[in-house]
C-alpha cells in the first residue's frame, strides 16, 4: 500500500507541477504526504491509507478555488481517484446552489457524500447508500457501482463555471511592484520569493506590543552591515521588483495607520514614485522583522519537513519493511524506493518547509555575502498598474458577503421542512454601500483529500488551513 501511495503521489506532483511553479501562496503551499509517513489519525477517515496535506489560505478564496482546480485536474487525469473537499463551513461545493438542493441533502447529511470524480462533482444519494454508511463503504460504492452517482446538472454547471477561468486566472491574480528594501530583505526574497506572503502577514497582523517595538529597531535586517572594498558600512536600501498576489497587495496598501521606524530612511512625498516604493518596502521590512521575531518566540524557527531518516523510521513503525532484517536484499530494495521517492518529492516540499520554518532558512541566506552591487544595474521589471485596486477591494468584499449568504442558505435547510424548489437569488448590497459593510474574519483551515484512487479535501472551522488526504483502493 505504501508503494502505491508513493507512486500515486509522484503522479500527482507531475500533474500539478506546471501549475504551481512560481505561484505565490497566501500562507502555505499546496502539499501532500502519504499517511504512512506523516500519520495524522482522524476518526472521520477511518484509518484509510491516504495522501494528506494542509494549506492555510485565510480569506483568499482564489487560493481555495485554485486548489479545487488542481484537485479536479488530478481526478480528470487519474481516473481511479476520487476527491472529497469541504471547508470550515461544510460542503462549500454545494453552497452556490443551496436553495435548489434536494430536501434530504443538508449540512448534516451531506458529510462524506460530495466528491470530485473524473473532473466532475458527484453526490452519493441516500437512496443508494444510507445516511449511516461509513466513509469507506460510500467510497467503495462510488468506485464500483454502475449507478449514476453524479450531481444534479445545476450543481455540476456551477462547479464548472467556478473553475473554468483557471489556470489562466492565476496569472491575472498576480501583481508586481518595485520597492526600496534593505539588501538583506532583497536577498531573502531573491532566494525565497514565497516568503513575501509571511512578511505581509506579519505587517498586517501586527499589534502595539513588544514585537512592534522590535520592528522599530530593525535589528535583524536594516541593522546589519554591508561588506565593501572600503570596509563595512551600514546597510542601504536597494530597488527590486517583488511579486505577490493581488489579495496581498490590497492588504499591504490598505495598512495606513502605523508608525514609521525612525531608522528607516523615508524620502519626502514630493518624489511621489520613490516615496511610494520606499513606503511599501518599509511595510515589507517591518513585516519581515515581526514575522522573524514572532516565530523565534513561538519556537518554530527550525525545519518542519520530515528528513529521510525520520521518514524511514515512520515507515518502519507502520510495517513498510515487513520485519525484514537490515542488510537483506528485499529490505535494500524497499529502502531504495523510499530514497527515490524522497528525492523526487522533496523538490515540492522544500517551499512548504521554508514557509513553516522560515527562520533557519533566513539565517542561512543572511550568512551569504551582503553587497548592494549585485542588485545594481539589473533590468528591473516595472511596477504593474494598480488601477484595478479599488474594484478588487469591492470584489473581495462581495465574495465574502456571497459566501456568508451561501452558508446561511445552506444552514437554513436544517430548519426548513420543505425547502423551496424555486431559486432564491442572493441579495448583495450595492457597490456604493460596500464601504459600510463590516466583514467578519472568515479564516479557513484544513482542507482534506482522500484518494483510494480517491481524494478527500476538508477545511476546518474558523482556522486557516487546507488539509488534503488521498487514498488508493488498490492493494
UniProtKB/TrEMBL annotation:
GO CC aspect terms: nucleus
Domain of life: Eukaryota
InterPro entries: Ecd
Protein name per UniProt: Uncharacterized protein
Protein source organism: Papaver atlanticum
Taxonomic lineage from the root: Eukaryota, Viridiplantae, Streptophyta, Embryophyta, Tracheophyta
